[in-house]
Design goal:
Elements (H helix, E strand, L loop, with lengths): L20 E5 L2 H14 L11 E7 L5 E9 L7 H5 L3 H7 L3 E9 L8 H20 L6 E3 L1
Parallel strand pairs: 4-5
Antiparallel strand pairs: 1-2, 2-3, 3-4
Length: about 140
């Protein structure tokens, strides 16, 4: 059997979970990159989220993007969510701003790391809960997907 010499690409440095951080994306060009990556890699593609939106990027120590999370305003009414929370119309109308919808979550495929998804989601939920407290705004108490 003939053997061939294969030249393999050097693999990128491994992503260390402790060094991953989540940053809020505000820059227009970064948001365009975000949407381009969603269209390219997410099974549902990009999204035109309605209402308020929060774009988060998970970055590793060298600044490379390893994950994307998009949160948007929660749907006004969901048949199963509202009874589960215990909402009737009046409480839902008062408290809907406390719920955000995780519209997209994507780990970029070029850096697969076990448990990266759990780490990124935890960091993002922690960040969401402190965002409102620092600014004095109302902060979400529930994230749905």
């Amino acid at each position: 059997m003939k053997q061939t010499n294969r030249v393999s690409k050097p693999s990128p440095k491994p992503v260390l979970l402790d060094e991953v951080r989540v940053v809020l994306v505000n820059d227009r060009s970064d948001r365009q990159r975000f949407q381009r990556l969603l269209r390219q890699h997410h099974y549902l593609g990009g999204i035109r989220a309605v209402g308020e939106q929060l774009y988060y990027v998970a970055v590793e120590a060298q600044g490379a993007w390893v994950g994307l999370l998009l949160f948007s305003a929660a749907a006004k009414h969901l048949k199963h969510r509202d009874p589960w929370i215990g909402w009737t119309r009046a409480p839902r109308d008062r408290r809907l701003s406390l719920v955000v919808n995780n519209s997209r979550f994507l780990l970029l495929p070029d850096r697969p790391v076990p448990t990266l998804g759990s780490r990124v989601r935890r960091l993002t939920l922690d960040r969401l809960s402190t965002l409102g407290r620092k600014s004095g705004d109302v902060f979400p108490i529930q994230a749905t997907s």
